[in-house]
Amino acid sequence: MMAGAIIGAICSKVTGAPLVTTVHNSFDRHSTLMRLGHRIVAVSAAERDALVARGFPSNKVETVLNGTRGSLRESALAQEEPIELKRPCVLTAAGLHGRKGVDVLVKAFSVAAASAPGWHLYISGDGDERPALEHLAQAGGVGDRIHFLGFRNQPQRLLEQTDVFSLASYADPCSLVLCEARNAGCAIVATAVGGTPEILNFGAAGRLVPPGDVSALAEALVGLMHDPAALRQARSDSKRNNGLFSVDRMAADYDQIYARAVQRKPFEAPLIRASN
User: What is the DSSP string of 91-153?
Assistant: First the structure.
């Protein structure tokens, strides 16, 4: 994307065509190259605030929340061999590196699962920290119920079998997998970082906990593991009003931005849609 922004800026200068850029990870230092755009798209309101705080011109930055519902990923489900998960279960899908806080989730699950013997944790994803995380899982005393699945190209098959989806990230601009977890009707426990509160309707569609807080995450998991009614309600809350996360809505928002860029219209208020 960084190379694309540079090439796009050159083409824009030669042809006079406006350039629209999208910032997916504002915490990456090289994301500053996205300032080359005549219009700059942030993937959540929180990310827009972060970009403006970093010096991006506020009159150029607009917001378009990510959308996954109705995407080509859904039509590709049959291309990957399904895995049958043991139920009830908690699932996370993330790269196995520090920013995703998978170690925090492993520790929290080890605490929560001590009083919930039927529950399993599945970790979908890969990365350099996998050996350390596997060791941590065994050290927690419930290693036989923590399963590492490696990278899976199509998480929907897993989400369809998941009771609780958890994401313990320290930073997440607008997580695609959280959108997919809501579409699948999973109960959700996630950290209140970046665009996650917006995706979870500020707690109405999932439980929010502080990043890095093992105790708070374990307590939230225990509350769902031990209370079937609360789990059912959380799953219902997750799926309610999730039409916001459609590809059609996202494309329509981008169309508006492209039209204003082409017509050189003055800046308008950022596109921010309420989750409810």
Answer: EEE--SSGGG-HHHHHHHHHHHHTT-TT-EEEEE---TTHHHHHHHHHHTT-GGGEEEEE--S
